[in-house]
Amino acid sequence: MTRRSPSSALRLHRELTAIWATPPGWGRLKAVNHTTIGKRFMLTALVFFAIGGVLAMLIRTQLATTQSAFLDAAAYAQVFTMHGVVMMFLFAIPFFEGLAMYLLPKMLGSRDLAFPRMSAYGYWCYLFGGTFLVGALLAGVAPAGGWFMYTPLSSATHAPGINADVWLLGITFVEISALSAAVEVLVSILKLRAPGMSLTRMPVFAWYMLIVAGMMLIGFPPLILGSILLEAERAFGLPFFDPVRGGDPLLWQHLFWLFGHPEVYIIFLPAAGVLSTVIPTLARRPLEGYEIVVAAVIAVAFLSFGLWVHHMYTVGIPHVALSFFSAASGLVAVPTGVQVFAWLATLAHGRPRFSVPMLHVFGFLFVFVLGGLTGVMLAMVPFDWQAHDTHFVVAHLHYVLVGGFVFPMLAAAYYWLPHIFGRQPVQHLSHAAFWTIFIGFNLTFFAMHLTGLRGMPRRISTYPPEAGWETLNLVSSMGGFVMTTGFALVALDLLLLAVFGKPFRRNPWRAGTLEWAMPTPPPAYAFASLPEVPARADRLDPDRLGPALAAGKGYLGATRHGWMEVLGVDMVSGRPEQLVVLPRRTSLPLWTALATGSVFALLLFKLYWLALPALLVVTALFLLWTRDCGLRTDLADLPVGHGPDLPHHYQSERPPSYWAMIFTLAADATLYASLLFGALFLWLSAPGWPPGLAIPLGAFTAAAVAAALAVAAVSVRSADGGTAGRLCVAALAYAAALVVLVAFLADIRGAAVRHAAVASVFAVTSYAVLHVAVGLVLSLFCVWRVGSGHVSARRDLDLRLARLWHMFTLVTGLAATAFPFVLNVLTGGAGP
Amino acid sequence: MRRACGFRGALAFSAALPLSGCTGDLSALDPAGPFAAAVADLWWLMLAGAAAIFLLVLGLFLLLLFRPGSGRRVSPAGWIWIGGVAFPLATLVALVGHGLMRGEYILGLAAGGDPVEVEARGSMWHWDFRYSGGARASRGVLHIPVGRTVVVTATSGDVIHSFWAPRLGGKIDAIPGHAATVRILADRPGVYGGVCSEYCGAGHEGMVFEVHAHPPEAFEAVLAGLPDEGEAAR
């Protein structure tokens, strides 16, 4: 191993660029770099924002006058459904994901995210899924049941076309992207930081994103589960939501809002993180109450999972139960108030300067406070009985989401675009653009509160003249077009910035965060060497740090073997503990995403026998990713420029992939818990229980599967000479369990379409089948890795990762085999 | 009730929106019975409170921005604990308690009386109303007596609908497989509008109905003149 002292900053720059940069031309398809992928996410999200905006204009044109004949009711339904779907799933979430991908490694003093190829895969999934949804709209087969797709309107009886399938499959496809981003953000924040950056020194934006990613991990699985169950009902007749066969439409509402409410905070909190970063810089004072703000954000995260029922005040839940959710919904205003007053305290004790981002902070506060106040109103049960599902709610949610997301993102754009483009704004249009949006927005949505209170329900395409809603609607429509003009002005303004802006040297805002301690526009490797962080990471001096880091004076200030190196730190203290070598750029994420997309397309067109081989292709492609992961020889600890030598991550106890596996299993466990609770909910609440038919128990199946899983779990122990043999035993045990489980599924298939109780058993068993199949693949994969020399006593990471899966499969598999027996006891023991 | 509404409506909106008012037979701000009135009162109360809080927060922000240093006398912890914790907590405890009592009142746990029971069955895209267990029925028009609480049980045979007569009380979803109730009450005779307020497919906006509130004696006569279930559906 050769280590050369850096002769000059320029030479180091050239060497690092050769290693990290994305090649031009077709090579762009291989990009995995966080700067590139983050920008792609944001740009694509803006394209979808424009599409969602056009849909909004169609809605406002339709509603501008009474008895409008502009769109018919069926086309209007597709338009309002897709407006919501595009804005929520294809704009808001991907946009902040892109911003977080772009900013986090730079703010944390690292060079990239923990799983760059996963970022690229997530991006392609998002792009293909989004294109698929918008393509369906152009083809006239877009979902049409509203963005929350209530059953039975979205069930096969009432929505026989493929429209609802487009939603279920398209959204699930995009959710894969969101979940992979959540895992990646969690691991990157926890493991890939600058040395010395303990959790308590993290920039506050990283705290926000850490909590948001945790919420996504728990919040998205219920929706994914709901989508799978509804698709299973539509495609195969498993009656989870059909009240005639033991299902319940309310199950969908619970699953949807269990995701849907945290979702609102998942969208708001990254924006609040931006504000907690931007306001202190503009106030020239570090954020006041850093600790209490972090505590408040954690409180919001917890509360947000206890509020979902406030979307369901009118379904007939007892008032006493509603009052609990009402109090919790009101209570969430407290941690939000803490954040707002922490910002005010920062302004009070700082020396605030008025600038374009501050103008958008004003827009945020004005609009979001109003949205929060109407939110507290709606949390009051009796008021919601009147306002629910009217235009009052439409007004409220736009005040919250535009106030809580769009204005902060505009502030973020004006604040960080100089970083992205290396140019400062010309400011000719910025003020006019802001005021146009601000006035247009309030014209549109302030009037809409009154429209709703005067009785106009959501989602109607026409209204009679005598209803007295026309003037208010016309005001809203005119305001909508004013707002659109404003967004066009912003687009033009930002384009002018990118082309004609003044270049600057460094740190134009005099910020104290690390992302400014690098040249702008940022090089692909972000930092030529990594800083040591001695203080809270929003009180640093980028102007002093930048040149020193560029000269290679920090950690990892030299290149070796063409490796893409970053430091892995202890989660809490930030002490360096491993050298993480990231995988090289590759087009595999693109191919894998294409294959994944083809699985969804085949499911959509009901070509199930082709979907199975396509799934195998996806699996094979994912396994190919591992070819350039890991080591074939044991390495000694490596020098990192300062401090003690560190082990290669592949030889360390807890590398990033270990934590990624833990977090993935946490999301998986949430999905499983949602499924089990869903079945219990049906037992408690659905009409048509207890079922009039026997619950299939399968004692032999249960015993055989339990034995096989136990064998598989204990065979995969330490790495020594007998490992490959034991792995083969595990694979055989899994194969046996698979055969028994699939036979059981085939056996109960007929009964599963007759009652939701049996359908639940079918779903729980299918979950076990999937996990056993993955366990089988992982066992064989480990055999391959042993054969290819990747495994030794010091290099047993592959085995340890697989072992986590085997243990998880053992626990969930045992629960799955016990499930029919539990259900049988609960329903009075009608089973054989 | 109408006069009170008009006065406060003018107070709240006349400066900003001269087009506001309390007309239209679907306006929740123009209650025609005590349940809707209780919610309308709650709204005016919350509107006043919300306006005050909004002006306070925005005022503080603008003050701090344009008079730098004006907030230094209060320590950062003071700002956060007083403004961010104590103030919202106190306001919310009062409001949630008040809202809960309003809800209990509307649910009529305290009230006795002799409620009229009707079933409102939503189907794509019309409402059928059944009285006296199906012996009498009407489509598109719900007949109720003035001054007596009416317990409406909402059911559905196809997708989710929602029964809402804004001037008489809150809404309730009609969910297949479930039967939930809402209480409405008219305190004067008249014709009141009703709509389906849960999106239920392409005919959603046409799924309207009328509530005819009759004096008690006239109500019995109207009811007696209604056909039975089978005929009403035709």
H-E string of chain B? HHHEEEEEEEEEEHH
Biggest chain-to-chain interface with counts? A-B, 92 and 83 residues
Q: CATH superfamily of the largest domain in chain B, called what?
A: Cupredoxins -  blue copper proteins
What is the strand tally of chain B? 10
- Please give the alpha-carbon distance between the first and last residues of chain B: 39 Å
**For the CA atoms, what is the radius of gyration of chain A?**
27 Å
- Mean pLDDT score of chain A: 93
Q: Largest beta sheet of chain A: what is the strand line-up? A: 1-2
Quick one: biggest sheet of chain A? 2 strands, antiparallel
**What are the low-pLDDT stretches of chain A, counting only 5+ consecutive residues below 50?**
1-6
How large is the share of residues in beta strands of chain A? under 5%
Instruction: Using the 3D structure, state the CATH architecture of the domain at 24-247 and 504-652 in chain A.
Output: Up-down Bundle
Total domains of chain B: 2
Give the quaternary arrangement of the chains. Answer: heterodimer
Number of helices of chain B: 5
**CATH fold assignment of the largest domain in chain B:** Immunoglobulin-like
Strand order of the largest sheet of chain B: 3-2-1-5-8
Tell me the name of the CATH class of the largest domain in chain B: Mainly Beta
Outline the structure in words:
The complex is a heterodimer of chains A (832) and B (234). With 832 residues, chain A is mainly α. Among the domains of chain A are: 24-247 and 504-652, Cytochrome c oxidase-like, subunit I domain (Cytochrome C Oxidase, Chain A, Up-down Bundle); 673-826, Cytochrome c oxidase, subunit III, four-helix bundle (Four Helix Bundle (Hemerythrin (Met), subunit A)), CATH 1.20.120.80. Helix content of chain A is 65%, strand content 2%. Chain A has 23 helices and 4 strands. In chain A, the strands form 2 sheets. Chain A has a two-stranded antiparallel sheet with strand order 1-2. In chain A, strands 3-4 form a two-stranded antiparallel ribbon. In chain A, helix 7 packs parallel to helix 10 and helix 22 (756-787) runs antiparallel to helix 23. The model of chain A is unreliable at 1-6 (pLDDT under 50). Chain B is of the alpha+beta class. Chain B has 2 domains: 2-107, no CATH class; 116-233, Cupredoxins -  blue copper proteins (Immunoglobulin-like). Chain B is built from 5 helices and 10 strands. Chain B has helices at residues 2-13, 34-66, 76-107, 216-225, 229-233; strands at residues 116-123, 126-131, 136-139, 141-145, 150-156, 161-164, 172-174, 180-184, 190-196, 209-214. The longest helix of chain B has 33 residues, at 34-66. Chain B is elongated, with a radius of gyration of 23 Å. Chains A and B meet through helix 3, helix 9, helix 10, helix 11 and helix 12 of A and helix 2, helix 3, strand 8 and strand 9 of B. Chain A: Pfam families: COX1. Chain A: Pathway: Energy metabolism; oxidative phosphorylation. Chain A: Its main location: membrane. Chain A: Its EC number is 7.1.1.9. Chain A: It is a multi-pass membrane protein.
